[in-house]
From TrEMBL:
Protein's UniProt name: D-3-phosphoglycerate dehydrogenase
Highest taxon, organism lineage: Bacteria
Lineage, broadest ranks: Bacteria, Thermotogati, Deinococcota, Deinococci, Deinococcales
Ranges of compositional bias, category Pro residues: 1-19
Keyword Heme part of the UniProt annotation: no
Enzyme class: oxidoreductase
Catalytic activity: (R)-2-hydroxyglutarate + NAD(+) = 2-oxoglutarate + NADH + H(+); (2R)-3-phosphoglycerate + NAD(+) = 3-phosphooxypyruvate + NADH + H(+)
Family: Belongs to the D-isomer specific 2-hydroxyacid dehydrogenase family.
Species for this entry: Deinococcus rhizophilus
Entry keywords, A to Z: Amino-acid biosynthesis, NAD, Oxidoreductase, Serine biosynthesis
């Protein structure tokens, strides 16, 4: 079955202007937009345009491009009227844009996150070098009249750099580090094995494995609930004495108090920080008094080249979007047409939830296969994209949505296969998703989940080769065991002792007395220690907790 590309969203259909009139773009914040002459477009650059003037002029434009100064809120969108179809944000952050309001009005929001990739990577390496040689310490003492030559730094050559997060910026850091004769090992469970090989980077399956082997550590991962405080007191203690730590990614990935403590105790030789949880950091912040710490004021994107790229890139993406190409830089996903939503709404929700479950069961897959069984009420192509949105969630700097998910999947080396089966033996329709990743010794590892829709409510129907029926909501504990009495009772007693309530249950088995699987929906999650205790029950073969 060959699927067409995702349906082109309604907001990018021609506006009310004359079909021969040029499409108009207003740039209201200061930037370097590059060339302003493009056939079929009229681009007006008015850097630092006063808000009242922006509100007055905007109804005559098809697109608006901003930086961080202009607030794209409900007032601005109401003033724009029906003609505005695209908002472009020069740079990464979109905190000044009301994404929900734009989506409801069918307005596409774009950004240009790649523009600062090289600049951010080079700053991370600058911090690495500065900390390794005590540059900021020596600079401060020399200016104070102290000619102190006692500090002994360390060379980078023939040492090992650990990278947490091998996305765009982490990949550039790896490339540049190898030029400095560093060996590179990285941990990123969401990146397929083939990318590590392509970059010449060794893969660490766990963070603990990486921490125990490296001389230098740098983080380049998005800030999520999973990565907040990822490098804390325990992780810093696992590093070699005299290691160097750099955070030029997001404030909060490295615990600030723990980092300051490791520097004061002398466990770390030095550190470099470009980002803080609260910016600017308050006077008296623990890190500002830490020894051998190089600090910058969130300067990752602050180079002349990055600023020039960001203007040209966001202008190019906005012009492409106005012509129907929305594959790059989409931050939100304007609603599908009402008819598609009416027919496929429940399946879109199902696909995203199946993807979210699979990314927790088997991250870093190199292949994702979607099989549609039965007769669907409409072309199910958007369900494939929704599944990708779920699988990529939390694993990339860009927020995946129905517009950019396929492009993000290609960037991560995730191949997509779609199959169609006219009949479903148990349900009128069923969506089955399987992901495959490289395992130890090159042997593939797979995980399979399936589901259907009752009315508009998604239901899980398959986990591995087992039939289940369960609402995919909240926390789901998936456990397998030999089909013998007592397993469910023992687990229920354990959960009850912790005060964890079971909201729902589904059982399945391959054959009587053989392998069995049961799933429990829980009102609350489990700590790592509690999950380890579940796995330690004698009759439990495996146990996984996922959150949908």
């Amino acid at each position: 079955m060959t699927l067409p590309p995702p349906p082109r969203p309604g907001p990018l259909s021609p506006g009310p202007q004359s079909p021969t009139a040029p499409l108009r773009v207003l740039i209201c914040d200061e930037m370097n937009p590059g060339a302003l002459e493009h056939a079929g477009f009229e681009i007006d650059y008015a850097g630092n345009l006063p808000r009242e003037e922006t509100l007055r002029r905007l109804p005559d434009y098809d697109a608006l491009i901003t930086r961080s100064r202009t607030r794209v809120d409900r007032e601005l969108l109401a003033a724009a009227g029906p003609r505005l179809r695209v908002v472009g944000r020069g740079g990464v952050g979109v905190d000044n844009i009301d994404l929900d309001a734009c989506s409801r009005r069918g307005i596409l929001v774009l950004n240009a996150p790649e523009s600062n990739t090289v600049s951010a990577a080079e700053l991370a390496l600058a911090h690495l070098l500065a900390a390794a040689r005590g540059l900021t310490r020596s600079d401060r003492r020399t200016r104070a009249g102290q000619w102190d030559r006692t500090f002994l730094g360390t060379e980078l050559k023939d040492k090992t750099l650990g990278i947490v997060g091998l996305g765009r910026i982490g990949s550039v850091v790896a490339d540049r580090a190898q030029g400095l004769r560093l060996s590179v090992i990285a941990h990123d469970p969401y990146v397929p094995e083939n990318k590590f090989g392509r970059l010449g980077v060794e893969r660490a399956d766990t963070l603990d494995e990486l921490l125990g082997r490296v001389d230098f550590l740098t983080v380049h991962t998005p800030l999520t609930d999973e990565t907040r405080g990822l490098i804390g007191e325990r992780e810093l203690a696992r590093l070699k004495p005299g290691a160097v730590v750099v955070n030029a990614a997001r404030g909060g990935i490295v615990d600030e108090a723990a980092l300051a403590g490791a520097l004061h105790r002398g466990h770390l030789l030095g550190a470099g920080v470009d980002v803080f949880v609260e910016e600017p950091p308050a006077p008296g912040h623990a890190l500002l008094d830490a020894p051998n710490l190089s600090v910058t004021a969130h300067l990752g994107a602050n180079t002349a080249e990055a600023q020039e790229r960001v203007g040209a890139e966001i202008v190019g993406r906005v012009l492409a979007a106005l012509q129907g190409d929305v594959s790059r830089g989409a931050v939100n996903a304007p609603a599908l047409d009402p008819r598609t939503l009416e027919l496929l709404g429940g399946y879109l929700d199902l696909g995203e939830k199946l993807g979210r479950i699979l990314t927790q069961l088997l991250p870093g897959a190199h292949e994702l296969e979607v099989t549609f069984r039965g007769d669907f009420p409409a072309d199910p192509a958007p369900v494939v994209t929704a599944t990708l949105v779920g699988y990529l969630s939390g694993s990339t700097d860009e927020v995946p949505n129905l517009i950019n998910a396929r492009a993000l999947a290609r960037e991560r080396g995730l191949t997509l296969t779609v199959r169609e089966d006219a009949g479903s033996p148990d349900y009128q329709t069923e969506v089955i998703v399987r992901v495959t990743a490289h395992g130890e010794g090159g042997r593939p590892r797979t995980r399979t989940v399936g589901g259907t829709v009752f009315g508009r409510s998604p239901r899980l129907t398959r986990l591995r080769d087992f039939r289940v029926e369960l609402a995919p909501e909240g926390f789901i504990l998936i456990a397998s065991n030999q089909d013998r009495p007592g397993a469910v009772a023992a687990l229920s007693a354990l959960l009850g002792g912790w005060g964890v309530n079971i909201a729902g249950m589904a059982l399945g088995r391959a054959e009587r007395g053989g392998q069995a699987l049961f799933t429990l929906t829980l009102d609350d999650g489990l700590t790592p220690g509690q999950l380890a205790a579940v796995r330690g029950l004698g009759m439990i073969d495996s146990a996984y907790l996922v959150q949908v």
